[in-house]
Amino acid sequence: LAPWAPVVGLEIHAQISSNSKLFSGSQVQFAAPPNSLVSFFDASLPGTLPVLNRRCVEAAVMTGLALNCSINKKSLFDRKHYFYADLPAGYQITQQRVPIAVNGCLSYSLCIDSKMSQMVTKTVRIKQIQLEQDSGKSLHDDTRSQTLVDLNRAGVGLMEVVMEPDVCCGEEAAAAVRELQLILQTLGSSQAVMAEGQLRVDANVSVHHPGEPYGVRTEVKNINSIRFLAKAIDYEIQRQIEELENGGTILNETRAFDSKLGCTVPMRDKEGKQDYRFMPEPNLPPLILYDTKSLPANMNHQQVINIDWIHERLPDLPSVKRKKLVEKYGILPEHSFTLLNEDGLAEFFESVVKRTQMKPKKVIGWILNDLLSYLKQHSLTVKESPVSSFLLGDLLNLLEKKEISSTAAKQVFAELWKGEGKTPLEIVKEQKLGLLQDQKELEQICQAVIDGQENE
């Protein structure tokens, strides 16, 4: 038999960066006291009506343009009837028939060896991007055998990015989601902090023999870590292959990833097709967008969204930033990936380069080999680093001017990491690490050697 071919399709829910929810004026805030950010509409009180949030629409358009999508000038809202214990209305407002953006693509790069010396670029197609509400949060109290509901998150605006099944392993999925995360953060359309539930991934996984129809797929739900995403997909692929090779069958089911056990576990079966009873949302008219050509002359610009206006204001995307870093500073392409993958590291690097006379190719070594190693060792972000770009720049200047040796520079860096507020020069003088001191010690050693030879 031919080897197994895995097929993976991703559905990514990104929380839109907005001060208020998608259809109500309730504030959006992480870790607020339970049920403190719930409007009458969020609680589904009779007679309440949805009012569409302009900011959420702009964020979705911006994201669609960045992902090379076609923006639908007319999109529609639908009700998805599905019992959510933590969504009081009993349905979710989403876009099933005509979403806001369709037919895009996302290019991402990944290493083909462990040394990061070879990168390959791949593309995954974007089927659609749709606006929809988030549900609330169920809190299970096992001690009292009860479930409590927090509706703070109910109604928060989401963008669901649906990808075509163009991925074949956990590493590719992780690279694609990480690139999407960087794009969302660059645009400001989502903070995409997975630890806070702002970016959640569902992975549809199946395996088949090449040339044969796709196999039965399983869905691994709500993965909230890029590292866990790669592990969950790779585990599920291997599980399905082993099941089939042992004569078993794959169930069409929803599974969850247990990060402690490192495996996927069944949640519920999907053998019977779930009928969500989609229907047009009666309380929301079609969403109409414009471009420069179609914008009516007498239209109030405050009341419409101009696709071209948003397109003109798109910032440089991560791929463009990497290219500029390589061209401007002469660093290796793989180094540009590392700089952008760590939040704030590229800005830190450029700040150090401006402050020091050392060549960027040397600076990058200190940034990646020393600073980043220390940060990961102590589980700190770039913004939490006790060694600022100014201090590192001053240290590298001392080294570049040959006022200290490279060994002494490492010692000074270790002292700076203690965060005692001393400058590199103060540490050099205090510990007598300058080359002049080194030279005196060397002369003394040489003299001692000479004296010893004379005595012999």
TrEMBL record:
Catalyzed reactions per annotation: L-glutamyl-tRNA(Gln) + L-glutamine + ATP + H2O = L-glutaminyl-tRNA(Gln) + L-glutamate + ADP + phosphate + H(+)
Any GO MF annotation of the entry: ATP binding
Pfam families: GatB_N, GatB_Yqey
Listed InterPro entries: Asn/Gln-tRNA_amidoTrfase_suB/E, Asn/Gln-tRNA_Trfase_suB/E_cat, Asn/Gln_amidotransferase, Asn/Gln_tRNA_amidoTrase-B-like, GatB, Gln_synth/guanido_kin_cat_dom
GO biological process terms, semicolon-separated: glutaminyl-tRNAGln biosynthesis via transamidation; mitochondrial translation
Alphabetic keyword roster: ATP-binding, Ligase, Nucleotide-binding, Protein biosynthesis, Transferase
GO cellular component: glutamyl-tRNA(Gln) amidotransferase complex; mitochondrion
Domain (Asn/Gln amidotransferase) ranges: 347-456
Signal sequence region: none
PANTHER family linked to this entry: GLUTAMYL-TRNA GLN AMIDOTRANSFERASE SUBUNIT B MITOCHONDRIAL AND PROKARYOTIC PET112-RELATED, GLUTAMYL-TRNA(GLN) AMIDOTRANSFERASE SUBUNIT B, MITOCHONDRIAL
Similarity-based family: Belongs to the GatB/GatE family. GatB subfamily.
Listed name of the protein: GATB amidotransferase
Species assigned in the record: Vidua macroura
High-level lineage: Eukaryota, Metazoa, Chordata, Craniata, Vertebrata
Gene this chain is encoded by: Gatb
